[in-house]
Every structure is written in structure tokens, then in C-alpha cells.
Amino acid sequence: MTETVTTPETGFDSQALRNRVLSEMPDEERLYDLAELFKVFGDTTRIRILYVLFEAEMCVCDIAEILNMTQSAISHQLRVLKQARLVRNRRDGKQIYYSLADDHVRTIIGQGMDHIEE
Amino acid sequence: MTETVTTPETGFDSQALRNRVLSEMPDEERLYDLAELFKVFGDTTRIRILYVLFEAEMCVCDIAEILNMTQSAISHQLRVLKQARLVRNRRDGKQIYYSLADDHVRTIIGQGMDHIEE
DNA sequence: CAATTATTTGAACATCCGTTCATGTGATAT
DNA sequence: ATATCACATGAACGGATGTTCAAATAATTG
Q1: What is the pLDDT of residues A70-79, one digit of tens each?
Q2: Which residues are bridge partners to B98 per DSSP?
Q3: What are the Cα distances from residue B16, in Å, to A24, A30, A67, B19?
Q4: Chain A residue closest to B4 (CA)?
């Protein structure tokens, strides 16, 4: 029933290794949340929006105009970014201004850039 | 035709801001590659595989058994991870051993974890 | 050689995702 | 209140994605 894990590293059965792997594995909920977070970064439109917000707080229509996309499309994606707590917003009259939520965004995108450029 | 970008920050039209945003924006190819990289992290199976490889180099059948999934499913995902240059492999007889390609993987996943845990 | 084990591959299937379009909501101004 | 502007939302469409299944490749063993 329980098969052995055979690594050349040890040379003999290592149920211990398998246990260590499983004990270091985050629980189901964290794995799900982590994957959901990275999914948010996995779209060029959302990354573009984040790059815009790197420079300045901005309202939806300005982002849409800069990226040459419809307000609706931008609004849909801002909702995704907000749910992932990557951006915040505040209302000022008719307009709603979006900005980066924290610096994890820059760090994560920066690390990603490092990887693809090496 | 060219609308003005209206930020409260400046108080007046800022074509300069728009130009700065667009000049800081990575080119199309990098944006695409970056999004593709994060897509790879955006799946619990692939993240699970990476966590397994955090502990030790391992062959396909062992990963499959530890994660309780079919070899085929794992193999398909390993191919995605390899294309993204997140894992390497080497053959040893019938088995093919996979390992992490570099430390960007740990850093990126670590930053993601930091974000969801705050 | 044939048989077995480890892995890869391609097609098929269901599901998920991003944009568009139409509509709804909220704030301002006349 | 009516009109307009800024934004959000829901349905719908096409395209991408992960797993399964069956079949192919590759290396070892008898």
C-alpha cells in the first residue's frame, strides 16, 4: 500500500524524507491562496495596471486611457487586484483613485523580472 | 483625440506623467514573459511540486506518489515548470530526477507567502 | 528478443478566464 | 429632476488550462 520513496541521495528507503516533505508542505488553504495570488500576476493587463500605479495614484479612466483599453475591462481587473489586496482605492467626487496596497507588489514583480532576464 | 490625464497629485494636466508611465513600462515581450512566469506559479499542483523539490531532488514517480496524483499529470506539470526554467532534470537509468533550477523560486514563493500571511 | 518499469506525449473533456456589451449605480451640475 | 460623467456589474462569448486516458518512447531485466 505505502510505496517507498527512492532517492539516489540516500541510497535506501526514506519514509523519513517523505514525511519531511509533507510536513514542510503548507496546508491546503495556504496553497490555494498562494496560487490565487500568483494567478493575479499572471495576466499582462493586470501587470500593466500595476506598472502604471508604480508611478502614481490614478483613476480608472486615466488607467484605461493610458493602456488604451475600455473602462469596463480595467474595472474588472482592478476588482481582481483589489480582492488580492494588491491595490487600494478611494473616492474623490465622481472618480475613484487606485494605488498600490504595499511594497510586496514591487518586490514580487522585481523578482519575476530578475528571473526572466537571467 | 489625445485626452489629458488628470491626477489630483499635480492639479493640472500631465502629459509628462503619462509619458513617464509609458517609458517605465516594460516592452510587450517582457510583459508577456513575466505574465507567463507568474501563471506557472498560479496552480496548486505546480506549487506543491516545487515544495517537494525544496526538500530534495526527486524522480517523477516519487513526486506523483507523495502528491497522490498520476505520473502523467505530474509529468505534464513538470514540463511547464521546465519550460519556465524553474526546474532542471537529469536521467539516471530509467528514472528522471528533477530539482530546482535556482533560488529565485524560493524567493518568489517566499514573497508570495509573506503577502498572503500579513 | 520480449517483458517490465519510468516517463512522455497528444487528444479529449470539462472548467476557468478576460474581454465585450448592455445595463445599473453613484456623484455632480444645470 | 434630468442629464451627464465615472465606475461597477452581470451575462455571454471565445480562448486558454489541468486532468485523464490511451498510446508512444526509452532504459533495464530476464
Answers
A1: 999 999 999 9
A2: B58, B89
A3: 49, 42, 15, 5
A4: A62
